[in-house]
Amino acid sequence: MTPAGVPPQTVPAETVLPETVLPESVLPETGRALLYRVAREQADSRIPALAVGVVRDGALVWTAGRGRVGDAPPTPSTQYRIGSITKTFVAVLVARLRDEGRLDFADPLDRHVPGTALGDRTIAQLLSHTSGLQAETEGPWWERTPGGPWSDLAAQLRPEALRHRAGRRHHYSNVGFAILGEVVARHRGRSWWESLRAEILDPLGMRRTTYLPEPPHASGFAVHPWADVLLPEPAHDAGAMAAAGQLWSTVADLGRWAAFVAGDTGDVLSADTLAELREPNIVEQGPRWVSGYGLGFQIQQRNGRTLVGHGGSMPGFLAQLWVDVDEAVGAVALANTTSGLGPVASDLIEILLQHEPRLPDEWTPLPSPPDGLLDLVGTWYWGPTGFILRARGRDELELTPIAHGTRASRFRRRPDGTWVGLDGYYAGETLRIVRGPDGRVSHLDLASFIFTRAPYDPSAPIPGGVAKEGWTGGGAAQSPNGTATPGTEPA
C-alpha cells in the first residue's frame, strides 16, 4: 500500500547508482580515528551492515561502511529505514504551513483536524511531545504490523488516549506525529509524503529518500542476544502512522539533511523558522537535563556540546542524525539491527572536532559603519549594573554584563530603526534608541528597563526617579522613607 495511491520513486534493481563523490576529505589521522570508532561499533554491537557519514560546512566529507549488504559493504547510496528521523521532515512541512499563514503553532488541533478528544491540544504541543497524548496506538504494535487508514486511527483518539495534562511533561507520542501528517494532508489536499517529496526532497536533491525501499537497500534483522545468527524483521507500510517513522534514506541524502539542520536550508525554510524548531521547548525529566525536544527535533547535551537532530528506530533498523550547529558539523549513522547501536554519530562529531577543530572565520572590517552605529556601542548601565553593547556586523548588537549576571542578549535591526531581541531574557523584546532634542543618544529603552551612559543618570527617565541628593558617602544614614540623611553617624 502506498499513500493516497501514489507509487514511490523506482530504481531498477539492475541500476548501479553512482558513488557519492566527496568534495573534500579529512586528514588521514582523523579518518583513521573515525574508522576505528565505526569498526568497533559494528564488531562489538554485531551489526550486519553499518553505514556512516560526517558532514562539515554543508558537505559530506567522510563516509564508511562496515559489514555486508548482500556481498558488498554498504555505501553512501545504500538505503536503510530511518524511523523517527521521519518526524523532522514532518515538522518542517508543518513549519512551512505556519510560515504561509495557514496555521499557527498555538492553534488547537480542532481548528485543523476537528472531532478528536484532543482538540484543545496545540500544534506546538504535538510537535514537542507535550500534548499528553498516549505514546502508541491501541492493538498490535504498529511498527510490526500493516497500517490502516486515518479513519481507524481517528477512532482511537478518545478521552482515554490522553495520559497527561497538556504541557505538563515530555511524553513521546508517535500517535501525535501521525496526527501532524494528517494536518499536512488536509491543508495540501494530498498525502504528507507527496508534499514532502515536492516541497523538500526534490528541491534539496534528496532523491534516494523514499516511502518504500528501493534497491540497493539493506534488509532489517534482529540479532540473537547469545548467538551470531539473524532473524529477518518485517517492513510494512505503516499507513496512517507513517508520518511517525516510515521513510527510507541513505547516508548521502541524510548528509544533505544534516546540512539543512545546520542551517543550509536553501529555499525550503527560513533560517529564523529553522532556529525556532531547534530551540528547546521541554526537557526530559531526570536528575539533570541531558536531553530535550524542540519542535520536531531532539536536543542533547553531550561532552559540553549541544547537538540537534533525531534518532530513529524501526524493527530491524536504527538510525542517528546529530548536528552541532555552532560548529557546522554533523554525523549520520544507519544500522540494520533492531537494537544495540551505541552513540556512534555523536562520537564521530567529537572525534572530528578533536582532531580538526574548526578555524575561526577570518575577521574583516566593515567597509563603513552604518549611520549612528558608533553612537550605540560601548558601556551602558542599568541602574548600577554595567553592560557592554557591541556591534556584530552591520545589523546585529550584542548586550552582555560586564561582571556577574545574566540577561545577555543579541538584537537584530528592524526596518523601523528599532531592534528585536534574538535570545536570552530579552528574546522578542524591543530595544529602542531614544535621542534627545540635539539628536544625541539619550538612553536605551529595553522592555521598560532604561540603560544610560552613567549609573542612574538623573537626566534620563529612570523608573521611580533618582534621589535628589545623588550618590553619597558610606556614612550617610537612611531615613525611614529611604532617602539619605546627611551628617548622621551610625550608632
Automatic annotation (TrEMBL):
> Polar residues bias located where?
478-491
Q: Which segments constitute the DUF7586 domain?
A: 370-453
Q: Where is the Beta-lactamase-related domain?
A: 40-354
The cross-references to Pfam families, in alphabetical order and at most eight, read: Beta-lactamase (PF00144), DUF7586 (PF24491)
UniProt region (Disordered), positions on chain = 462-491
| Name by which UniProt lists this protein | CubicO group peptidase (Beta-lactamase class C family)
Recorded source organism is: Thermasporomyces composti
